[in-house]
Amino acid sequence: MLSKRESFVIGLMLFALFFGAGNMIFPPALGQAAGSNLWPALIGFIITGVGLPLLGVIAVGVSGGNLQAMAGKVHPVFGVIFPTIVYLAIGPMFGIPRTGTVAFEMGASPFLSEGLREGVWPLFLYTVIFFGLTFWLALNPSKLVGRIGKILTPVLLALIVMLLIKSWLDPIGGLAKPVEAYESTPFVNGFLEGYLTMDTLGALVFGIVVINAIRDRGVTGSRDVARNAIRAAVVAGVGLAFFYLVLGYLGGTSAVLGESDNGAQILARVSHELFGPVGVLLLGSAVTIACLTTSVGLVTAASLFFSRLLRVLSYNQVALALCLVSLGVANLGLTQIITISVPVLVAVYPIAIVLIILTLLDQVLSVRTPVFVGALVGTALISLFDGLAAFHVPLGVWGQWLALIPLQPEGIGWLFPALIGGIIGAMWNLFTGGDAAVKKRTVTNGKNS
Fold this sequence. Notes:
single chain; about 450 residues; mainly alpha; Hydantoin permease
């Protein structure tokens, strides 16, 4: 087992990997919208923004240290396809480019003239430097704990704490009336808002980084690796929950400054109100470091995955390719990236949640393959249609049928079909022999050959 200090350092690394720009801007936006219903909304947000991601890290640890092992429980083909989709979504297609564009929007753009801000060259030059640093930091993943856990994380925390302490000592205003969406169902809306952090998908990606960091320190036993992963996850979870509560409260008390289009504007206005131009500089610095740490973690994890999957490219070659692709996508602009990523996230996120829950249950109940298949098929049937709807694809009569599913209007209609699919899978396994029959046929075929 690792020492408490070593576990704490790895936990700080995990916190830094999770705590990207999205984690800074979504809680304030939720706080301003929820108003006096802030606390139930934040509880829902913390469940999906903290609880599920940490369960994801633990699930990766107990399943053998990678997403393929988890998804392979369903089917070998699914064990390749689903991880590939996750790594592409959280990696070069959406997640990694978003870190560069958000860092530019909040860390550089406020200090540019209006003419430069609207040009293409500032973003391009900024992202060249940003992803160049990302590539350099990701070249040696074994040093990720030292570089992020010991250096970048304390700097990030110091910058944020300076802003937050001032806001607590000198509150800007009180909690306002909630907007319509948060009047009746603040918990559900907060739960869905937690999706936007992408941290549950990120957990499936970052899990291998944490496991490798633990193994690099001499821990080899699967149980010891899992226990250390849990300890690191607890450290990261406490940090995330604390900052979400504070940032949410900060957004909730900002209504007197006027309505804002997003959490970035809320934080910018609050920081200017509390510290003036220096506050804007502090905010930009904090966001830039948060984005850089997240980008390094995503490139590291995705490079490990694709280099092992493809085998013809080395880790360094894949890391370079990911940074170059991310550079190109980032220059499409933040708005375009978010517009495309949200429907994909709506389709993939529920599948990841169900897979994590089943993986953890498997450690206690020995969940059989038919249960995995049934629950995930039930989930996918709904989440894929939700993704199409988010792309504004007309669903016609299918949309009318989907509206009849329990909790569908609240955005979590996949929950009931997942449960039904899991029950059908369990019954199938019970009456057909399920896994046992498959193993028997495999052994028989092996003897005959």
